[in-house]
Write a structure and sequence with these properties.
This protein has 152 residues and is mainly α. The protein contains seven helices and no strands.
Length: 152
């Protein structure tokens, strides 16, 4: 996930060069990852500290999340681990893609064009699967390199 943070930082810097804002506020949130579970009040306080001491005191006394209706707060503050949720969603998407491509797709090719075409389609899908595996291995390798470099 650190490689996503690096690309997000690059896109933000590019966007700042294009938009040229009058004021840039950068709270200290470098320790918060993309899928980390965070305390909304703490993050709002960090932003308030960055803006100025008068605004920070106001935000520290009256957090937005605490002033909302209880029914909305229950939906807004997530108690679920976002990393586990993302992992579960990715597994379900991969399984769905596998079923759609290999079972349904090859079944339709076999039904319409015959066995020879289905075998050719299977070889093409396996070749694409190898390319996808190489791509994901490269991404995981970059993530490992970035994590190792940041830990030093």
């Amino acid at each position: 996930m650190r490689s996503l943070d690096a690309s997000d930082r690059m896109l933000t810097d590019l966007r700042l060069k294009i938009d040229k804002p009058d004021v840039i506020i950068r709270p200290d949130v470098a320790d918060i990852g993309l899928l980390d579970v965070v305390d909304v009040c703490e993050v709002a306080k960090r932003g308030g500290d960055c803006v100025g001491s008068g605004f920070a005191r106001t935000q520290a006394c009256h957090c937005l999340a605490e002033s909302l209706a209880p029914s909305f707060v229950g939906r807004w503050i997530m108690k679920r681990d976002l990393r586990a949720y993302a992992r579960q969603t990715n597994v379900q998407l991969a399984f769905g893609a596998f079923v759609l491509l290999f079972i349904i797709g090859l079944g339709l090719i076999w039904w319409i064009y015959g066995l020879g075409a289905a075998i050719t389609g299977l070889l093409c899908l396996l070749g694409a699967l190898c390319a996808d595996c190489a791509y994901f291995l490269a991404l995981f390798g970059m993530d490992w390199i970035v994590k190792r470099a940041n830990s030093k």
